[in-house]
Specification:
Number of strands: 0
Largest sheet: none
Structural class: mainly alpha
Distance between the termini: 43 Å
Number of helices: 10
């Protein structure tokens, strides 16, 4: 099986996990979707837990790259913070999907240990990036940065969850605007 097939499996698994969580990952269903035999998936991922961990790892790695690119593209911390909610909005734009890290976090008690570790890294990557941006923008002291970063991360993930449950992306936008007006987020960037 080529690396391309492995990537196709991970991509299909990501979309499934964003729509149905870890419990929705089904090896046979993924095999059908990718057009291969289930045994081919087990070749690279001997268990569902290993597949789930690999998908979650790729997700936080992709997010880390997206965040670095966001900072690079925007050029300054304040603008980067203003654009941060758009990373979560993208999932809603794609068939009302939820952030995979958030979905799997909701299933935390039922996740195998390797998946739990990767899901936690997703939150850690987001909080660390937010903390750095908040400090670089001069909005917060180093002592208070992580607490504020966690509040922002949690609020945006919650906004996404609420919008998804109503299939209303405009609700997400309204909630993010409210966070900005309340001072949790800096002014939004279009």
């Amino acid at each position: 099986m080529s690396k391309t097939s492995r990537d196709e499996i991970l991509s299909a698994a990501r979309l499934t996990a964003q729509a149905h969580g870890y419990t929705g990952l089904n090896i046979r269903g993924l095999a059908e979707e990718v057009g291969i035999k289930a045994a081919s998936i087990y070749y690279h991922f001997p268990s569902k837990a290993e597949l789930g961990a690999a998908v979650a790892q790729r997700y936080w790695e992709d997010t880390a790259r997206d965040l670095a690119l966001l900072r690079e593209t925007e050029g300054d911390a304040l603008k980067s913070l203003g654009r941060y909610p758009h990373i979560f909005r993208r999932s809603l734009e794609k068939e009302n999907r939820l952030c995979m890290g958030s979905f799997m976090s909701a299933e935390y008690d039922d996740l195998p240990e390797p998946v739990k570790k990767e899901v936690q890294k997703f939150a850690d990557v987001n909080v660390a990036w937010l903390n750095t941006q908040l400090q670089d923008a001069g909005l917060i002291s180093p002592e208070d940065g992580e607490k504020r970063a966690r509040a922002i991360f949690s609020a945006i993930a919650g906004a996404q969850l609420m919008a998804r449950s109503r299939n209303d992306i405009h609700l997400f936008d309204e909630l993010i605007e409210g966070y900005s007006q309340a001072g949790l987020l800096p002014p939004l960037q279009a």
